Each structure stands twice: as structure tokens, then as C-alpha cells.
UPF0173 metal-dependent hydrolase H9808_00810
Amino acid sequence: MKATFHGHAVVSLETEDGTKLLFDPFINGNEACNLNVDTVEADYIFVTHAHSDHLGDTVEIAKRTKAKVITTVEIASYLSSFDLETHGMQPGGSHTFDFGEVKLTPAIHGSSIEIDGKPHTLGVASGILVTADAKTVYHVGDTALYSDMKLIGDLVDIDLAFIPIGDNYTMGPEDASLAAKWLQAKRVVPIHYNVLPLTEQDPENYIKMLDKDVGFVPEIGESFAV
Ligand code: NI
Ligand code: MN
């Protein structure tokens, strides 16, 4: 499996059989992102929660690519109104797809969408574990540090974790360094920094807080092997 970081919380994975998985495709308005809404490829789109910097351009991309959207039941229901193909799940639930297994995890965070200037809550926020090609990747989503990350780390053999470090809306670097330790991820890529105001962080400083050779700051758009 190959992984690519595209800025903020946008991540893509490609399995050995060529299946393309796209996470939290916030492309328009994301100055760090190398992708284009009109050309990005996806077979499946994952949405951790409804905030606009995660739901992003999901509707437009899924309409064009016919990608199936895997997300919480409430967001799936909302997206169904756009005639998209969806698969709704909830934290704690797992399901086996053609490419591998998906499990949602808790995330301590909101999940609202703004309609006519008013927030509407769409269920709870989630993190997403994907196991494919005998590797497990964890997109932690937007979340506070929480102690069940220790449990997830004990139960799941995580090869790669994408962990938010931006602070203010999510964990900051110190809490995110504890998250990396508790999750026992073999490799950690920091996300959710320097795109939104109030999330300015130095990712290199963050990876210095982790065990040797765990933290990794990939070039935007550059694929690496999981
Ligand atoms: Ni959020
Ligand atoms: Mn966010």
C-alpha cells in the first residue's frame, strides 16, 4: 500500500491492486493541497466528520468519480440527498470492503455542517482505521487526546498513523506526542497544521518529540510505502 499526504487532513492511499482511497478531501480553500477537484481520482472517499475542512469537496468529487463515500451514518444520510453512493458506519463498527477492512473509532470533536449560516450537527466525529495489504493505517481525524488511544494501541497493530497537531481545534503537539506513544504506531505523520488560522505549528519540532525514526514529514503529494 502507498500513502500520500496532501496538506491539512487530506490523505490518500493506494492498495496493491490499484484501489484509490481518499480521506477528508478539503481541496478548494486548502492552500497546502496539491490536488485538483476536477482531476483527483478516488474509488472510495472517507469523511471523518462534517466540518467543512474535512467534508470539503466530497460531493463534487464523488459525483464525478462515482466513488463510494464511507462515513458516519448521519453524514452518509446527508450525502445520499445528493444521489451519492454511501456506506454509513458508527464508531466501534467495522466492515469488510473489497479493498480491506474499515473500522471507525471515537474522536472527541464536533461534527456540524453550516446551512444558511446556522450549524447543524451530523452525528459524532470519528477516526478511521483501514487495514489493506496486511497493513493498518489510522487517520485519527480531529480529536482531543483521550485515554482509550492506549486501548486502540494495545488492540491494533498500527503501521502508520496520521495525527493532528495544530492545537486550538484538535490536539496540540504535546498531546499528539502522547497519542503517538499510546497508539504505538510504527510511523506517525503529523497533519492538521498551518492551513487554518490558529493551527500554526512546526511539524519537525513535533517529530523530535517522538521516539527515534517514528515521526515523518512527507513532502506534499509525494507517495511513500506503508
Ligand atoms: Ni473539525
Ligand atoms: Mn478540522
